[in-house]
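Form 7-S
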Amino acid sequence: MTKPIAPVAKKIAKELIKHEDVRVDNYYWLNDRENQEVIEYLNNENEFYSKVTEHTKGFQNDLFFEMKSRIKEDDSSVPYKQNGYWYVTRYETGKEYPIYSRHKDTLEAPEEIMFNGNEMAEGHDYFKIGGISISPDNNLAVFGVDTVSRRQYILQIKNLKTGEIYSDRIEDTTGGAVWANDNKTIYYTKKDSVTLRSDKIYKHKFGELAENDLLIFHEKDDTFGTAVYKTKSKKYIAILSYSTLTSEVQILNADNPDGEFSMFSPRVRGVEYSISHYENSFYVLTNKDEATNFKLMKVSEEATTSENWKDFIPHRKNVLLEDIDIFKNYYVLSERENGLNKLKIVRWDNASSYYLPFGNETYTAYVGTNPDYDTNILRYGYNSMTTPSSVIDFNMDTKEKTIKKEQEVLGGTFNKDNYKSERIWATARDGVKVPMSIVYHKNTNINEETPVLQYAYGSYGSTIDPYFSTIRLSLLDRGFIFAIAHIRGGEYLGRQWYEDGKLLKKKNTFTDFVDCSKFLIENNYTSAEHLYAMGGSAGGLLMGVVINIAPELYNGVIASVPFVDVVTTMLDDSIPLTTGEYDEWGNPNEKVFYEYMKSYSPYDMVKKQKYPNMLVTTGLHDSQVQYFEPAKWVAKLREYKKDTNILVLNINMDAGHGGASGRFESLKEVAKEYAFILDLEGKTPLSQKK
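Output:
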């Protein structure tokens, strides 16, 4: 059989000059989505991927059905009550999309189907419903629809009594909207059609033409985005302006939709804050006064600016305060200490306060959907790498808990006692201890021949908690260890953990991952012949750097929608989301950031060396990381690499950053990734199953 020949992208040299530095980009031409030659090249890449992986197609299919078989098809969410109705999201067997329904007063009342995603998705390759918002009188719903996968939603309004969808159509929105208390005024956020930055808040009157909508606020600073929401108390509508480092809120009484928004407290660079309303006060979660791990402050409704804020819960050096949820008699604090989630319940009258007990070494716990203000029930979620997700209702008065739902793992073979998870600590090159959460089948022999898939993200302060996955069982049952590396750039060990992995400290993110890999090899969890790495988006950037600086550590790498051409992208403020990223990566218009970025940018730093086997994925309509970044990167890797290892690029020509939209269609993409590394590992569908 003839070996497939990889596509070779033609080279058209383009000089990119900044700070008197000249970079030559031979593949810049690939950024023109309208150029038929570009589309032809991408199709050639897909054809090459198909040929190289042809022998795994049946295995991919087997993996897909294996993963799907563990998931309950006719599933439904735990109902939650809001404003007199019980709301449920459910799925039907054989269908890809959710059905949103409700019951009046009790769950025994007749079901009212608000939206059937399966019917609405007909005729679309991609479909997603945005944030559904119900009017205070329960009669109307505003909702967003995206059929392109660029997160540009069209807003519409539906009469929930008659089923009529009105002619109001508002384009280029974020998909969400909030109602004023008059049941006819909505506020929504529009996106810039080119940069996709959320930059304008509009007011729409039900039944009127969208072109007559009133611009309420325009966020002119292109490093900021904006959003609009309603406080849980239903008293205020709030406009939030946000950047990576700074936030600002404006408020309006929801009973007065034609009034003017007033400034809660003006923005101060480096100061972040968010507000919760209770009785006649606001509670402000903020990093003001160098409260790195955040603190809670209190201020009167009458005078809200920051000079009036008073400490309510002071800053703690070892505890990250992540959120507060407000109830009539209690407030609930979401905290993180030594990487672990903690939920603290406190009565407003201070008659009692306590932490919910979690008895695991590594787990994930979080506050769930709690729209009801006047209740003593806290809904929270819990899972670990070995324990399926549970939704739990906790009575804050009696301390009784009711498990409302435990994730079912179908197939009859799953037993959580067959799996082990633990937290291990690698020492980074600067002496810092970096935690990893790992999980494996109890029958897996751990030695230098054990395959390990190491995953991380490591940016934006986003923490990848140790979570349960039915999909992952397809690896664990074939003898893999799955490891989440909690590297700097996330907030797993507090806010400083994030600060130490961004801007001019960004390289800590990459070297932490490499040092975790070295730890796994040196401690005989695996070897370089059996170690695999995976990351997506900013985690794809991580993969790009890692293969440049330590390619010898990995047998295979999966880079999903990778952000790899850092310098060029961050210099192009017309690309979606660029300007809002300056506080994360730096602004390369300043020489110090330009030089630092260039020194790690995967595309710029491709070398003439050996690289691991690689699968790179992207979507033609990706709004977060443009398709041409991975396309150019693969073309350059092909030109430079000094090995015969596999390098394939798979482009979803119909989807964007999140991949396929259907509930099960997305499993096909995971099956491709798993088949790639299982094939490299020599594990066929029939071998080494436990």
